[in-house]
Amino acid sequence: MTSILEIESFGFRYANAPRNAVADFSLEVTEGSILVLAGPSGCGKSTLLRAVNGLIPHMYNGDYSGDVKVAGRSVKGSEMRELAQTVGFLFQNPENQIFMFSVERDVAFGLENLGVPHDEIRSRVDEAMELLGIASLAKRAPHELSDGQKQRVALAGVLAMRPKLVILDEPTSLLDPRTAKELVELVARLRKELGTTFLIVEHRLELLVEVADKMVVMSGGRKVLDGSPQEVLMGDLAEGYGVAVPAVTKLQKMLAGDGLVRGDRMMTGTELAKTISQAGH
Ligand SMILES: Nc1ncnc2c1ncn2[C@@H]1O[C@H](COP(=O)(O)OP(=O)(O)O)[C@@H](O)[C@H]1O
Ligand SMILES: [Mg+2]
């Protein structure tokens, strides 16, 4: 299995900050996987993402240590323009990524910046809009759209660049539960159809447990837990690090502690409900 991302003892202290935002952080991410990064506010998640998309060190000053490689190339030694073709970044608020007069021009924006030939832009934009189910909105003004639709427009713009790695920083924070679920389903589908790797910072873990391959928890700038969602969430340490363990998982652990349900494999809400109702008879 090929690694798309290799982080080796990465550390970063912002200029003028008293201490490192991230310290001694190592991680390898397999191409085509979905990784969720969790941890309390201020633990260094966004800083880590910036080190992957190149904003660190290219836009933020500070002390940089270790190395970050995307598709085998050092981020530090690459130009932002070059990185933009490998790493796509979806901002938390799509307003920051949407600015043109129509949906299709917005989706085309990144490609135009790269000087991609016109015909190629046309076909990639159509493809991305199709993929995200927004083709019918092509001529609409982005500001007329719902938050979920804006999110899709921003993501279409990212995907039109055909990045191998897509970074989502708290992508569902502005979405209602149903739209958030749709976004997660979309991520799972894109991984399957395009083989895209996703690195996602998210608090609503219950949305992601079924699609994530790996979960990493940070605390105080360091990696403290790293494993499958099951290993991390069924383990005893996650809650202590401020991870929002899904209610279903907490309930399962409680019942498993009393020997009422199995504790070796994480269950979905439906599975758990079924087991409980069967146990009642
Ligand atoms: N631009 C910046 N300049 C100085 N310090 C920063 C900057 N951005 C974040 N920090 C600090 O770095 C630490 C990690 O922040 P951040 O990476 O944003 O965490 P998270 O995304 O997990 O909330 C925090 O102490 C935060 O105050
Ligand atoms: Mg953040």
Write up this protein.
This protein is an alpha/beta fold and 281 residues long. It has helices at residues 45-53, 55-58, 80-83, 103-113, 118-131, 147-159, 177-194, 229-234, 247-257, 269-279; strands at 3-14, 22-30, 34-38, 62-70, 73-74, 87-90, 165-169, 197-201, 214-219, 222-227. The protein has a six-stranded mixed sheet with strand order 6-7-8-3-9-10, sandwiched between helices. A four-stranded antiparallel sheet has the order 2-1-4-5. Helix 4 crosses helix 5 (118-131), helix 4 runs parallel beside helix 6 (147-159) and helix 5 (118-131) packs across helix 6. Bound molecules: adenosine-5'-diphosphate and magnesium ion. Magnesium ion is lined by residues 45-46, 169.
Show the helix and strand layout.
Elements: E1 3-14, E2 22-30, E3 34-38, H1 45-53, H2 55-58, E4 62-70, E5 73-74, H3 80-83, E6 87-90, H4 103-113, H5 118-131, H6 147-159, E7 165-169, H7 177-194, E8 197-201, E9 214-219, E10 222-227, H8 229-234, H9 247-257, H10 269-279
This protein binds adenosine-5'-diphosphate and magnesium ion (MG).
